[in-house]
Amino acid sequence: MRSYGQYCPVAKAAEVLGERWTMLIMRDLLTGAHRFTDLHRGLPGISRTLLTQRLRRLERDGLIERRSVASGREEYHLTRLGRDLEPAVLALGAWADQHYTSEPTRDELDPDLLMLWIERNARRDGFPTGRIVVRFELGRPHPSRYWLVVEDGAPSLCDEDPGFEEDLVVNADLRSLYLVFAGRGALSAALRAGTVRLDGRAEQRRAFTRWFGTSAVVSAARAS
Q1: How far is residue 76's CA from residue 177's CA, in Å, rounded to a whole number?
Q2: Gap between the Cα atoms of 150 and 172, Å rounded
Q3: Helix, strand or coil, per DSSP, at residue 21
Q4: Mean pLDDT for each consecutive 10-residue tract of the chain (224 residues)?
């Protein structure tokens, strides 16, 4: 049974948000994911069937709504009721960041997920004009290669060579880049230590420090 049978606001909140994956779905909606495929990419381990079930439940509870876009596809957007949850989600993030976040374990170092977050949290006003192509070379413990293609300030992540001339190459230790993104290490310190290295023209290296964003959830939680 989903109901706790208690006339208590904490119990009611747990009934709405306490199911597995629901809080992470809300996190991704709050940080800009709207398409089903984007939500599914950001939740490794959830089946498409279960994600559909959770989205339908959130829609019935009035937290999200479906909208048709020009392409004919549907997107998921937070309602005003869903947006009202943002301070609570950030408060939970701030509490966990203070008391429970430690060094990432090997199992938590997911390069696909990190690159998705980097794409989603990039500061778009910091991109240079025109097309920009950035190759990421991520080292141990999961050596991986990605390309971030920026067109008109909109980044798109590729796991195969898009065939364009590269403007910048980012060589990084996966753990170090995770810590920088999570706000647990400064990018400037990682660059000095050599755990993150930028290869490209000086203007592209400077631009990287402007558009590379840290976790929106952690940044907003700490600011609040």
Answers
A1: 30
A2: 20
A3: coil
A4: 86 93 96 94 96 97 94 93 93 84 85 95 93 94 90 94 97 94 91 96 96 82 62
- CB-CB neighbours of 14 under 10 Å: 14
Cβ atoms of residues 203 and 128 within 8 Å:
yes
Identify the DSSP state of 125. G
Half-sphere exposure of 79 (CA within 13 A, CB side): 11
Q: How many whole angstroms separate alpha carbon 178 and alpha carbon 51? A: 26
Dist CA 92 CA 74 (whole Å): 30
CB under 8 Å to 9, separation ≥6 — which residues?
Answer: none
Measured over the CA atoms of residue 94, residue 100, residue 34 and residue 143, the dihedral's sign is: positive
In the numeric block, the tokens 């937070």 are attached to 78
As a dihedral over the C-alpha atoms of residue 142, residue 193, residue 190, residue 93, rounded to 10 degrees, the angle is 80
